[in-house]
UniProtKB/TrEMBL annotation:
<dbReference type="InterPro" id="IPR007061">
    <property type="entry name" value="MST-like"/>
</dbReference>
<dbReference type="Pfam" id="PF04978">
    <property type="entry name" value="MST"/>
</dbReference>
<protein>
    <submittedName>
        <fullName>DUF664 domain-containing protein</fullName>
    </submittedName>
</protein>
<feature type="region of interest" description="Disordered">
    <location>
        <begin position="1"/>
        <end position="36"/>
    </location>
</feature>
<dbReference type="InterPro" id="IPR034660">
    <property type="entry name" value="DinB/YfiT-like"/>
</dbReference>
Length: 186
């Protein structure tokens, strides 16, 4: 890109935030969740919402826009990558063969993130389906110390790994979004 976008935010209360507190779907009034599992689930939910917020209002070209060469990273690529990650996590704890890759060989999730509305729609659908499938599998295992799959991965480890993956990629999404249209915040 030859010209950098002007930095801006929609927030008026705190200029370093993405949205005002009253408009933030991640805000919850009242006490924090009770228990470790509920806390982990809330953090995961909030990072999933954050990813959606960082992508809202962008068209297919903007979502597919790459950061800087030689990186293949884009917001759309992150959506596709996280759909694949959800599928992979389910594969780690499956007693049978892991499910096939959604997008093909390594980095195909980023390489195939092209500026096509149909690709964008398919990516969001795949992410929702994979999240729901992984959530459903883990719902049957409320004991965070329970070990699953051939590698005997603790449910706690899997939950923390999921949060870490979303958190890291939401950080990438902050920078990618700022490159696309200059919007900044948390």
């Amino acid at each position: 890109m030859s010209e950098s976008p002007t930095r801006w935010t929609r927030a008026t209360v705190y200029p370093d935030m993405w949205v005002d507190p009253d408009d933030d779907p991640r805000n919850s009034d009242g006490p924090s969740p009770d228990g470790e599992l509920a806390t982990l689930q809330e953090y995961l939910r909030d990072y999933r919402i954050t990813l959606r917020m960082k992508c809202e209002g962008l068209d297919a070209e903007q979502l597919a826009r790459r950061s800087v060469p030689p990186s293949t990273m884009s917001l759309l690529g992150l959506v596709r990558h996280l759909a694949q990650a959800e599928r992979d996590w389910r594969g780690w704890i499956a007693e049978s063969d892991p499910p096939p890759k959604l997008y093909g060989p390594r980095d195909a999730d980023f390489d195939g993130a092209v500026a096509d509305p149909a690709v964008v729609e398919a990516a969001w659908s795949a992410l929702a389906e994979e999240q729901a499938a992984t959530d459903a599998v883990l719902a049957a295992h409320a004991d965070l110390g329970e070990r699953l799959g051939p590698e005997q991965i603790a449910v706690r480890d899997l939950m923390v790994h999921r949060i870490e993956e979303y958190a890291r990629h939401c950080g990438h999404a902050d920078l990618l979004r700022e490159c696309v249209d200059g919007r900044v915040g948390q």
